[in-house]
Design goal:
8-stranded mixed sheet; TIM Barrel
Length: 560
């Protein structure tokens, strides 16, 4: 028995046999000669088209965020530049499978060099390479194992096509060697309610069938645990889940301090999972724009928004305007040759190039809101200055939207939060991007994943600055990043002054229960402890120790 340690990105404890992801195809060491150049080019283009079509079909069957990711990956496979470059190599004597592998390696290297969100697409390209090469060589398609029983999925990393097809009745938990707190694996595991540990060195070496005890809350995977250890851990988890399920109603601390608990949504297909939320704290609108040659029209947008607004009658829905650029390129709005798109024209900045996109979107949101009984708020992503916040608010109000806010994802905006809030009605902290920009750390690299840990005291300082500015202005400050779904960290965020938390629907139960076991004074004490810690690991450790066995009433095993 030994313990592997990584980063817990989706809470829960489960035990089960390991099953390692199917291996990618390997090219033979000696390439065969190309005897029919035309047929070789045709074979490569056919494989590209078939893989693109397969991914697009899967996107149509999946729910966001998996559907959006798969659609973007399908667009990569259908990119005419990729097909042209492959054809050039084949005509130079390279066999189809080798040409595809070489070209995708070139693209992946360029993506990695660009850094930021674009580097995240390098893993998607690697998956494309594996699928196209397997098809050209007539080999089994890489992907999820099928041992015939429920299992703990082990992988170096998971591609979008893999995560989109995970069946939570078969996959008990996910453990990967790569990835970080904001990776696709983390986001999708949380949306499925599966415990997950990423950046877990040594995971791939675990043999198929080996029993694993996975704790996605603290980020451990115990290899070949003793039966008594498994029973004890699962019993504690069952007690925790039962206790959490008994806590119902609006979010509030044990002494009645209100904290709105909201859901993050991508499309109307996610609505059934979000019914327990008090509203929508982040409605991503990119699903209407991705993988299209031109922007959706006014009527299409209005109908899509109206469906979601109608489902939340009497509750708040916060709509984020188009967050294009970086990892979400649009053929009609973004420049494909930006040297560093994560630091370029993205989010609200796209309206500088295409103002009509934002104006029509705001008009469609307003039209849908006027006919709905939901309380519709709107906010802009990637706002950096008070001037940008005020200008967006004026623009939205001119379209008839009375409650307007902005995302705090850039450290400059957090540092000037008082001035930002002076020009709008509320702010929402996007902790994923705020951490990436604050620590200059690529969210796709396992080597710097610890810097993106939402427990980092410097990140908590930025959140505290923003929350205190909101308190002074008497305006709401929410969190809609992945940090909001961590039940222990939720206590700290509320202690910092955050007024609402928006998360994957699967995490609502645990967060509601955690708040119900602590007073607002206790949350503030935990926030002080976390900010005073030297690093993220110490912050979590100190808070956990006091929250579970603190001075205010003994162990808190009911929600741990």
């Amino acid at each position: 028995m030994h313990t592997l340690t990584g980063i817990g990105v989706s809470p829960g404890i489960v035990a089960g046999p390991a099953a390692v992801m199917n291996a990618p195809p390997v090219l033979p060491a000696r390439p065969p000669a190309v005897t029919d150049e035309h047929a070789a080019v045709e074979a490569a283009h056919t494989a590209l088209g078939e893989v693109a079509a397969e991914l697009l079909e899967r996107a149509g069957q999946a729910i966001p965020p998996a559907a959006d990711i798969l659609a973007a990956q399908s667009a990569m496979a259908a990119d005419p530049v990729l097909a042209q470059r492959v054809a050039e190599l084949i005509k130079a004597g390279r066999p189809p499978a080798y040409a595809v592998s070489d070209v995708i390696a070139e693209f992946a290297e360029q993506f990695q060099a660009a850094g930021g969100y674009l580097a995240e697409r390098a893993a998607d390209l690697e998956d494309l390479r594996n699928r196209i090469v397997a098809r050209l060589l007539g080999l089994p398609m890489p992907g999820l194992p099928d041992p015939g029983h429920p299992y703990v999925l082990i992988a170096d990393d998971l591609a979008p096509a893999d995560t989109a097809t995970i069946d939570p009745r078969q996959v008990l938990a996910i453990v990967t060697e790569r990835g970080g707190p904001t990776s696709h694996t983390a986001i999708l595991a949380k949306s499925l309610g599966l415990p997950a540990v990423v950046a877990c060195t040594g995971a791939i070496a675990v043999a198929d069938g080996t029993q694993l005890l996975v704790n996605g809350t603290i980020g451990t995977a115990v290899v070949a645990p003793a039966p008594s250890q498994v029973r004890s851990a699962l019993d504690r988890e069952a007690v925790r889940r039962a206790a959490a399920a008994r806590v119902t109603g609006p979010g509030r601390t044990s002494d009645g301090h209100p904290v709105k608990l909201m859901a993050n949504l991508g499309t109307a297909r996610e609505l059934p999972a979000a019914t327990a939320a008090e509203g929508v704290g982040l409605l991503r609108t990119e699903f209407l724009y991705l993988d299209r040659a031109e922007a959706p029209g006014f009527d299409e947008q209005r109908a899509a928004y109206a469906e979601i607004f109608d489902a939340f009658a009497g509750r708040r829905v916060v709509v984020r305007t188009l967050d294009a650029g970086a990892d979400k390129p649009l053929r009609f709005a973004t420049q494909p040759d930006e040297p560093n798109p994560a630091l370029g024209v993205r989010g609200l900045r796209t309206s500088l190039r295409s103002p009509e996109l934002l104006d029509e979107q705001l008009a469609a949101i307003s039209a849908a809101a006027q006919r709905a009984r939901a309380e519709v708020w709107v906010m802009a992503p990637m706002v950096s200055t008070p001037g940008e916040a005020a200008a967006f608010a004026q623009r939205a109000r001119a379209q008839g939207l009375p409650t307007v806010g902005v995302m705090i994802e850039v450290p400059a905006a957090a540092l000037r939060a008082d001035a930002v809030l002076a020009g709008c009605d509320f702010v929402s902290l996007g902790t994923n991007d705020l951490a990436q920009y604050a620590f200059a750390a690529d969210r796709t690299l396992s080597d710097v994943a610890d810097l993106l840990d939402p427990w980092q005291p410097a990140l908590l300082d930025l959140i505290h600055l923003t929350a205190q500015a909101g308190h002074r202005a008497g305006k709401p400050v929410g969190v809609c990043g992945e940090a909001a779904g961590d039940a222990l960290l939720a206590l700290v965020l509320v202690g910092l002054g955050v007024t609402s938390l928006s998360m994957a629907p699967a995490t609502l139960v645990d967060v509601r229960a955690a708040l119900a076991h602590h007073t607002i004074a206790e949350c503030r004490h935990l926030a002080d402890l976390a900010r005073a810690a030297p690093d993220a690991a110490a912050a979590r450790s100190h808070v956990e120790a006091v929250a579970h066995t603190g001075r205010w009433g003994g162990a808190r095993d009911g929600w741990r």
